[in-house]
Amino acid sequence: MTKPVILALTAGEPAGIGPELCLQLAGENRAAGIVVVAGKNLMEQRARQLGLAVQLHDWQPGVQPETRAGHLSVCHVDGCHFTEAGKLNTGNSQYVLDTLTLAAQGCVNGNFDGMVTAPVHKGVINEAGIAFSGHTEFLQELCGVERVVMMLATEELRVALVTTHLPLKDVSAAITPERLKQVTRILNADLKTFFGIEQPRILVTGLNPHAGEGGHLGREEIEVIEPTLDQLRQENIQLTGPLPADTLFTPHWLDDADAVLAMYHDQGLPVLKYQGFGRAVNITLGLPIVRTSVDHGTALDLACTGKADAGSLHTAIRVGEHMARCRQAATAGELS
User: Subcellular localization, per the record (predicted)?
Assistant: First the structure.
């Protein structure tokens, strides 16, 4: 029989919409076992404020989480101070990081099959004197891996990034042969392991307009990207490109592709978010664990209004469950 999937769901910034998005899950029966990693006191407080009749259950490792409508399993984390919805409190910063640590460690030791993260507020964590650049980098360090890859996905499109949060003036220097090789190998391997794609077909953008137009609009394609892709093709990685980004995101190319590899953040993500904002998922590749996240921020102005949309969270859970099942199948195949 297929082992039931258990996902840890971190509730994110207490003052934001994360806790109520988690509570919204209790409104329906669920296929995957969801364990909300948060302060139980916070979840009870937010349920009362929203007028939601949700029964919260203490969860312990080895116990199957509640999947019935009206019920939600919670793995309690200490340290969450009383907080007013929409108002940040630096005193909760360590608590937020503790939820991430507990969830990630639970994935590593097998208590969870993956983790889904509601949004955190990077600014308030840094204001508390804790250096924090985001979920991705935090989990990279915690898991001890050299390189991770950010990929956003909808049901129709997957876009991974060679570089992420860099000023445009620094992007060209950051696209080195070694970085491009690492990112492409991770993307190819994880499309196999976590998405069950036997031979991934990857489209690669150029950096410059018209992919450099033969060197007239930049030489990065000629000097770095094309030679590196040629080397990667020798490893039986199926790559097409570098292609002009302004025409790559069309059915002519996308209909025969499993993912797009874009050179920088605002080259690939505006297309994906226009196509599916609110139902997209942020995926971290290169980790030894499954990690998905929503595609939006803490939305402090919507906290406790009842107007928060859980569409992206539902997608993140659905994709996380799919990735966990694909990894289970891949592991079973390796052991057979």
Answer: Cytoplasm
